[in-house]
Amino acid sequence: MTDSPARPAFARDARVVVPTRHPGRWAMAAVILVLVAGAITQVIGNERFQWDVVGDYLFAEPILQGVARTLMLTVAAMTIGVVLGVVVAVLRLSPNPILSSAAWAYSWFFRGTPLLVQLLFWYFLGALYPTIGAGSFSWSANDLISPLTAALLGLGLNEAAYMSEIVRGGILSVPPGQAEAASAVGMRRSQVMRRVVLPQAMRVIIPPTGNETIGMLKHTALVLVIGYSELMTSASLIYSRTYQTIPLLIVAALWYLAISAVLSVGQFFIERHFGRGFSHHRVSRRGSRATRKGEAVA
């Protein structure tokens, strides 16, 4: 019977690592739990919140119609913002000074003026231009610029300015050598951008785009001022008639929170998809597994 090989010195001298205790953290966690429990008890037990009224209107038909219009506005405005934002970002990085200057001016104007002002401007565009077009191909601005059209123009064009900066930052995060290598094999500039740069930039673009989507969901409430009936408008029309302001505001808030939660979950999975190969957590897990295997062999 052969003797087992001697263990290395570092293995014989290994010490048991005792995790550091943090009593302050546990005390702070206990205080926070007590405060949260007290706040929940106060909110639920306060009859002035009129939770019965909240339950009656939470799934009322006007509220559900407002939720559907809010979702439609969010999706449509973000689609406009993402598509136009990519175009503006590419123009901003163009070597042509006229194109890059025009893209910079667009971003500067729409990011520098309040969204509420832009919505009102588009809604009252007919005061400046009664007709749109030329000659026999002209239409009344009041007929073309409906509340829905004004809402899409205001939200979409404003979002495009912010998305252009997000996309530009993502493109600049890709090492220049990637584009140079693609150009060296004969790809055109548009092909390099579409097939090489943008797929790698998505890892940087997706997280702020998810935040912008959740922000757009809440920004749709501003179309109340131009008379488009989304969630907030539907709630306001009800409480202006019933004078149950607080319960209806709670109904709107609960729907915004629910939709934001769903969007956050979707953002998480999209980020994980585009972050494959860049996950520090995954690398650390592999490293720890390799370490454990090495220790077992030793």
From TrEMBL:
CDD domains, per database record: TM_PBP2 (cd06261)
Q: Which GO terms describe its cellular component?
A: ATP-binding cassette (ABC) transporter complex
Annotated TM spans: 26-45, 71-91, 103-124, 246-270
Cell compartments where the protein resides: Cell membrane
Instruction: Identify the SUPFAM superfamilies for this entry.
Output: MetI-like
GO BP annotations, alphabetical order: amino acid transport
Note one Pfam family from the annotation: BPD_transp_1
Q: Which InterPro entries match?
A: AA_ABC_transptr_permease_3TM, ArtM/GltK/GlnP/TcyL/YhdX-like, MetI-like, MetI-like_sf
- Span of domain ABC transmembrane type-1: 67-267
Per the record, membrane topology reads:
Multi-pass membrane protein
MF (Gene Ontology) = transmembrane transporter activity
Question: Keywords on this record?
Answer: Amino-acid transport, Cell membrane, Membrane, Transmembrane, Transmembrane helix, Transport
The family classification in the record reads:
Belongs to the binding-protein-dependent transport system permease family.
Which protein is depicted? ABC amino acid transporter, permease component
